[in-house]
Automatic annotation (TrEMBL):
Stored Pfam families: Cyclase
MF-aspect GO terms: arylformamidase activity
One BP annotation, GO: L-tryptophan catabolic process to kynurenine
Protein name as it appears in the record: Cyclase family protein
Top-rank taxon: Bacteria
Gene3D superfamilies xrefs: Putative cyclase
InterPro entries per record: KFase/CYL (IPR007325), KFase_sf (IPR037175)
Lineage of origin: Bacteria, Pseudomonadati, Pseudomonadota, Alphaproteobacteria, Sphingomonadales
Length: 312
């Protein structure tokens, strides 16, 4: 994308100061009492789905990229009282990249021109100790819960998975809304299914999942802004399309990230396993539900693992 074209969009979508000079939750502010009540009212059948990948050494990150989780036991069957040796405990630690699997991008995750969401200067707020502003802990408190709306683009196109590099457009999202009988309302979290995660969850092909993802176009950021969406999540690597060779060949790499995180303050959920939920939605025709997806309150982190849970 040309920088001059990007800048025009960015200026229109910029939410800096909209919720106050010190705001660090961005578009999650759209999730007010009315939106939460609408989310609660969407529960009808009592069916529950977990949308997170397992966090383990066999995760989706290839060698040389983010680190898949490494679990170490620090205590195994340790006796607490020698007088009662049959009573024991175990303990453990985990070493991992916080964005190695199903996760939220915090508003500090990506920026340009040395400035983050709400005008924070990167030189003032980013250091080896983390992000002193726009850290993921602000998304965790009071949390992320809203009405989720699944837009099944793969099913709309009549395929199990979109081909690599396929662009999901605003027209695709509108068509999915029409076909599924849903509309996006203020405070909703939009969930886009491409089917791409099946390369990892079903085929166990890490590299097929990692390379040449289908994803949303830059214009989708404008659509989210116009609908006052709270966040977006998808079942691919980065929500937007990510052929790796494009990272260094554009004046604004990952433009959707920059518009959402830096300009709008809109969190991105990545690598969500939407296929089991999508199959159930197709069966019962219900594509809206209560979504609970609070990140871990890791102070200063630029992202967080999450296990999103849907209640229909």
């Amino acid at each position: 994308m040309q920088r001059k074209d990007f800048d025009k969009i960015a200026e229109r979508l910029r939410n800096w100061g909209r919720w106050g000079a010190e705001d660090q939750r961005g578009t999650l502010n759209h999730i007010g009492p009315e939106a939460l009540q609408r989310a609660a009212n969407s529960v009808q059948s009592g069916k529950m789905f977990a949308l997170g990948l397992n966090f383990d050494k066999n995760g989706p990150q290839p060698p040389g990229m983010r680190m898949n989780p490494q679990l170490y036991m620090t205590a195994i069957a340790q006796v607490m009282n020698p007088n009662f040796p049959e009573v024991v405990f175990s303990d453990d630690v985990v070493h991992m990249s916080l964005q190695c699997a199903t996760q939220w991008d915090a508003l500090s995750h990506a920026h340009y021109d040395g400035v983050l969401y709400n005008g924070c200067k990167a030189c003032d707020v980013l250091s080896t100790a983390g992000a002193s502003k726009n850290g993921v802990e602000h998304l965790a408190n009071p949390g992320i819960m809203a009405r989720g709306v699944l837009l099944d683009i793969a099913r709309l196109k009549g395929v199990d998975r979109l081909e690599g590099g396929t662009l999901v457009t605003v027209d695709d999202l509108r068509a999915a809304c029409d076909k599924q009988g849903v509309s996006i309302q203020a405070g909703d979290i939009v969930m886009v299914r491409t089917g791409h995660i099946d390369h990892f969850t079903i085929d166990r092909n890490m590299m097929s999942f990692y390379m040449n993802n289908p994803g949303v176009t830059t214009e989708v950021a404008e659509w989210l802004y116009d609908h006052s969406a709270a966040a977006i999540a998808a079942d691919n690597l980065a929500v937007e399309t990510t052929p790796m060779e494009s990272f260094g060949g554009s004046e604004m790499p990952l433009p959707f990230h920059m518009l959402c995180l830096r300009e709008m303050g809109l969190p991105l959920g990545e690598m969500w396993n939407l296929s089991p939920l999508a199959a159930d939605c197709a069966a019962d025709g219900k594509y809206t539900f209560l979504l609970a997806a609070p990140p871990l309150a890791i102070t200063g982190a630029v992202g967080s693992p999450v296990n999103p849970v849907v209640l229909k």
